[in-house]
Amino acid sequence: MTLYINPFTDRVTVELRRYHPASPATRFTTHQWALRNLVWSNVGPAYSHFVWTYVPIPAVRDALLNGFYRLVDLTLVGVIRGQATHATDQQIRYPEVGYGHESRYTFSIWAFPEEEYVDSLRAYFGFCHDYYRSTGYRCNITNVGYRIAHDTSSLFSYSFHGGVITFDPVSTGNPGWEAFLTAYNEFCSQRHGTPLFNQTNLLTRDQVRTAFGDRLETFEGFRRRFDPHSRLVNPYFRELLGSGDCEASLPSTSVATRPARKK
For residues 159 and 149, is the Cβ–Cβ distance under 8 A? Predict the structure, then answer.
């Protein structure tokens, strides 16, 4: 299940899929996914970038953004459908470097327990409107969400305690994005959300501890066992996890890298 979420048009479009066996007579369709992926990865971000950059009047800018994404929602419901499609046709392969500055976009992710999701999503809509009224900033691309099944294969799985659904703000990285993420992270942390380390930016140690609790101590036990000299502790995770705090300093052979945000 994929959700296309727009707090400013008060609309959520849900994309459902089910699995069934294929046969030699099965006719697969691809055109709808080619259209969706083109808009998702290129046309939508480029349009949003243009409107946010060159339309200075907020009311006009909002009308252009909201009108465009209402059209996208209608297209999703009326066109992006099929009886049989290959899963790979629904996937987007992003280039190592974005298509161009005008069509780049970024996002962040928190997941919420399924049983609390509707209340959390309604609260998120209110949060976006309140934040816009107080700061003048809003995400300029449709937000998305995904349902993730229960998974305990990783200590830092964001569905460790059961199935979750996400709501992920998406933006061209317009001015104010990082300040918005700081407020968004705190909002999500207060509503029992769980981040995804390589796709949730600007986390704090308190937010990480609230989300993962005792799993941090379990992880640190394994880390000390297999990395007693903290060779694999970079500054990013040292700050978030508290790993290696008792060591005086990192060895000179350590490699420090920060997980990159997808674009």
Answer: yes
How do strand 168-171 and strand 106-107 relate by DSSP bridges? antiparallel
CA distance 232 to 251: 9
Sorting pLDDT into bands at 50, 70 and 90, what band is 262?
Answer: very low
Q: What is the pLDDT of residues 4-56, one digit of tens each?
A: 999 999 999 998 888 877 777 777 878 888 888 888 888 999 999 999 999 99
pLDDT, tens digit, 9 for 90 and up, residues 111-125: 999 999 999 999 999
Reading the block at residue 88, the tokens are 């790979």
Q: Which residues pair with 103 in a beta bridge?
A: none
- The pLDDT value recorded for residue 223 is 92
Q: How confident is the model at residue 233 (pLDDT cuts 50, 70, 90)?
A: confident
Copy the structure tokens of residue 223. 């880390």
| Calpha distance 100→41 (Å, rounded) | 11
* C-alpha pair distances (Å), 179 with each of 101, 132, 139, 182, 232: 21, 12, 12, 5, 30
User: What is the model's pLDDT at position 19?
Assistant: 80
Say how far residue 154 (Cα) sits from the centre of its chain.
Answer: 19
